Amino acid sequence: MIKYIMPATKISASKRKIIFVTGLSGAGMTSALKVLEDFGYEVFDNFPLSFIEHLAKEKGHEDSHVAFGLDTRARGFSPEDVVRKIETLRKNRKNDVQLLFMNAGNTTLQKRYSETRRSHPLAKDRPVLDGIRQERGWLKTLMERADLLVDTTDLSIHDLRRLLQGSVHPDPAKKKLAVTVMSFGFKNGVPRESDMVLDVRFLKNPHWDAKLRPLTGKDKKVQAYIQDDADYAAFLKHTKEMLKLLLPRYADEGKYYFTLAVGCTGGKHRSVHLAEELAADIKKGGYTTTLRHRDLE
Fold it and tell me: Range of 51's domain?
């Protein structure tokens, strides 16, 4: 099915933006396309891959910003063909081609399918989780090559809008640095999308206190325990000062999204508390800020 969403918007910048929106089913591709529609993109959802290059050259479309929604249901869809199509369009220097990949955790995707009572497109007669795992493996190439990887596990529609405005809005005047602060546990791997990683495993670990172990870094007792570390205050102060120096420089260099990953061993106590503190400070600085705790699930 081809779905035409809105009329073309003429380009004001020197390059024409072409965005490929793909990702895991249920991760928010439809929501992302609606946001891009609001930004003035001409949007085509579930568009046959073989038609894209012809549309890009078609009279009346060559001067418009375009976004294509591509998922596993699209006719002729394959990750390899998507990559080849992007590389072909990038040969034209007038095009600014980006790949936007929508991602979410397995538990979140399962919950969304359960709430809507829909079957997964790759697992019509099997458990939803089977389809999610199969699709995640199939789309791994695209996720690794994405120019912008958006994880909607803990992202509201308003956060998504702010993130996309900061990264792909066609009007440069409306772009501003969007910052994501994410806590995580090293035992589960460093987040792929991180631009900077802070290792806070040197701080006192509440895990070794039986009363604090079941709690998280959002609990005041855990926060007090961490703050009691002799180096906590100095570390937090210097980190805030470093970010106040770096973030404006990233914005000046044309970077529109920045992910700060804060890690401890399990992603439950120290990293959660530090992420909360840093996100609050960054938000006070006027930046669009999203806070995520990846491993609290």
Answer: 3-174
